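Q: What would this chain look like folded?
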Amino acid sequence: MPVIAKGLEGIVANSTALSDVRGEEGILIYAGYNIDELAGKVSYEEVVYLLWQGELPNKAQLHALHEELGSQRELPQGVIDFIKSAPKNANPMDVIRTGVSMLGLYDKVPSGDIDPANNRHRAVSITAKIGVIAAYYHRARLDQDLPPVRKDLGEAAHFLYLLNGVEPTAEAAMTLDVAYVLHADHGMNASTFSARVTIATLSDIYSAVTSAIGTLKGPLHGGANEGVIHMLQEIGDETKVDGWVEEALATKKKVMGIGHRVYKTLDPRAPHLRSMAVQLCEQLGEGKWIRMSERIAELMKERKGLNANVDFYSATVYYSLGLPTDMFTPIFAISRTSGWTAHILEQLVDNRLYRPLSEYVGPAVGKTVVPLDQRALKY
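A: My prediction, written as structure tokens:
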């Protein structure tokens, strides 16, 4: 008998050597490394190499990857023209999704080509360009100039440079770099599954990443971190936290950033982001947000037995860095592109089309067709 699991919960759809989410233990592993071993010790580019190659790079290999990413940052003029012409009130994720899709139009290799070397080159190109698309759109909607791309900065620092038009401080770049590391991959999450389903049809890598971006956009996936800041702003003051949470629980209103579909204990990424959030708030003298967050987390743990997840503290980190709220999910997409492309490349090594079954719950067979002029009107 087929197993029926709504949302495919508990179903193993494929095998992977990229990452492992051990929900019962609260452990996240990238290619054999516990996330606690990586966060703050290696750069995002090192994690990109790890996901693509299965091992951490040596100095020469890391330098080569930096050079490769830097050389692929220039956007086709057609994509720049689109960014400049996009509605100023568009959702940035929509612009990024369309921009990445457009990149496929400028690929000189036929879209049906799935040569591994060509696909790795495409993975580099998309990873290098997605942050440029996001930052350029933010500036274009504010009628600001688009700074020329640079080759000398790491991915996190380069995004902040493009977004703000000035080179970031070392502290800001390092903070965002750690966030990139923490978000790079996360097992068979919804957006990664979307990417693998798309590429499994032997479509192209641009289509697969576009599918992933569209999936990540949803508030139940990548959009949750924006919801956390909106929640904190709605509460407004530390003295109102307890009452707001009580009312939310009474009316079954979702408390954003709390709980996780897989982790049954603490999300292992959350402590790293919490530490950065505390440090940033102390530096800025704006401890209100982290104190509000801590109280919400405390109440939800007491009342519902639920822990804060990665979105809960990443929101405060990004907000403290001065990043626009609607750029929080794009930052998630930028960092997760390394994981998406790694899964796409892995899928193609031993590909099989995804074709799950569905449980039919419609009317029993046996209906007969009534002639059109004899059918009763139904309202």
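The chain has a mean pLDDT of 92.
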